Amino acid sequence: MLISVALPLPLFRNFTYEVPDAEAQRARPGMRAVVPFRNRREMGVIVGVDEPADGVVPKLVHALPDTEPVLSADMLALCRWMSEYYIVPLGIAIRTALPAALSSQAAPAPTQKKRRVAVVQRELESLAQRDKIFSRAPQQRAVYELLESVGGRAPVEHLMEKLSISSSVLKGLVTRGVIALEEEVVARDPFAWRALHAPARHAPSAAQREAIDTLARGAAGEVFLLHGVTGSGKTLVYIELLRRVVLEEGKTAIVLVPEIALTPQTVDRFRAVFGDKIAVLHSALSDGERYDEWLALREGRKRIAVGARSAIFAPLADLGAIVVDEEHESSYKQGENPRYHAREVAIVRARQEGALVVLGSATPSLESWVNAKGDKYTLLRLPERVGEARLPKIEVVDRREPREATRAAARGERDAGDWLRLVISEDLEDALGDRLKKQEQSILLLNRRGYSAFVQCAECGEVATCPNCSISLTYHRTPERLVCHYCQHAEPLHTQCPRCKGLVLRQRGLGTQQVERLLADRFPAARIARMDVDTTSGKWAHAEILDRVGNGEVDILLGTQMIAKGLDFPNVTLVGVIDADVGINLPDFRASERCFQLLSQVAGRAGRGPKGGRVLIQTKVPDHHAVRCAVAHDYEGFVRQEFEGRTVPSYPPNVRLANIVFSGTTEAGTADLATAATTWLHRLLRQRPMPGITIVGPAPCPVERIKNRWRWHLLVKAENSAELTRLGRYFLERFKVPKDAELRVTLDRDPVALL
Ligand code: ADP
Ligand code: ZN
Description:
By secondary structure, the protein is α/β, with parallel strands linked by helices. 32% of the residues lie in helices and 23% in strands. α19 packs antiparallel against α20.
């Protein structure tokens, strides 16, 4: 028997192999096959059986490691769609849809680990009883109370990590008969114990009810856009939908969130309702752990997959619903081949499997909004916050400086007081002081990590740049060094300008580390937490910082865009944006949209409780429509103006777009390649005209060099999606890339950024 196998190689074709007779009946599409390929063994997936021979004498497969297909027929169809639409070989689309553990030769055995758990043996009801028992053992008491708060049972490892205690503390508790230590077999789910303290359940508001009811009448494959302002209770709508689909109708569901680590509260709420029916596909899972969850979903032991982008490939049968929370987030787009957008894959998968899709956001992408205004999606609205909460009042702090101040600064005439004032306006300083006095919490956003954006020579103006990337190095204080945020290159701070030997090197532009220091100087008693890439490298770091905020152990949470997502802390009554203008002028057609979304989302963290909230936005461009509309809570006004701005020249959603990027190790080689490709495309279009296609460029990418590779790009705009597919495929299959200077071509369809 002959089979057709898709291999994860950059070749737009599948390969035919022969299966020995003894194995022939076992071979089915969707199973893996180990095959010989150019003197190597490759792991591929069978995509067709009983294929006719393709002329050459087929080689024998080495092995068929599976007894069951790893890809269902539906999932295989989804991979075919990805391969077509994003113009990547089928084998590469398939590799993305499977857990990494399946790329190695044998499927790993499901690894069930044993772990030690502490279990409460004796309930200590009264405080007096506790005071007595733990009078000289405060650590034991802390352990006991933590255990109690998570339902009486928790892994020893977590207790020790959480409370920084040694095992002797636990032994002490065992000796007193308060707890027992047991071994337990676990399907590995390191986050399961977090959510044992169940959040309150609410009865739906009228608006939520209406959305829930409309969803209940949804047709198979229907897409809903849930446009709900921040704090309008979108999560409850998702949960009610899943309650019906999963618990009542016995189907399965997928919930996509931008990043699990940043949305522990949302995940906790799902877990509180659906308990062990949920597989949480966290990025901290090892390949083996991820595979365990994958198996549990495939075998129906778990029926809801919650995760970031790749959870859209959860191997669930009988899919009833897919939720894409914060659908506007750019993290749903994969940065390497296949450059898929999980929202689009969700819609295709749902249509194919008869599930319904809910896209939720307070600031939907322009693409989704246009579809909801037309007849593609059904629009659901939650126009107000739930309960007593109101949207916070947003004020602009105009930071345009009077000319004298700018000149003085240019001459270096500034003292320490000016420095604080440059970063934090009087208004914001007062507001922060006021919150500290009232023991309320504040969130401060500055979307730039590090200490200062760049270091510049005061004499010749030279800026320290990365040797590998065309990007300035960011000054970091702890530890002190210059770091490239693109390639992680780090070097010590110069004492002298490398160009003119000047001795005065100024730090320009502000980063979170610097703001943290200023705040600590100004408010020495305040408990400040900083959350950015540099403080969250550990597995548990995000959750730990957020838990501290939730427990009231932090007065001011300062951070990058990480802190703008989904956080729901009722005691946060002030949000300050240190510099709204970071990124607003990037040469990218989505720069304004991202700025508007970020400002709206971070503002949405304020005033979620009965005390209300206030938002201060510091900006030098108060008239920019992204700032103006965010301040006025005017999503539709923003969309109207932004849409206008994308007509001439046209950008999505007014046109379909692909960004073709050329890169290589030499500047000239890369530029030549881009030019040759453009000429090639123009010639093609002359020979076979494709109406509605425009080629723009080529030009160097805004970031001209990353990791020692030069970059050029050209844009293909199309009125019709199918034409774009046809042209892209024709180009990638036939345009010859010379084999020197490590030249490469990539095509990014529906790009989220053009940098
Ligand atoms: P969103 O995602 O729309 O910003 P959330 O789903 O995070 O909003 O909900 C905001 C807060 O409102 C949460 O603390 C949630 O528990 C609470 N909440 C949701 N629905 C209701 C309701 N019907 N009544 C009271 N509180 C609610
Ligand atoms: Zn670099």
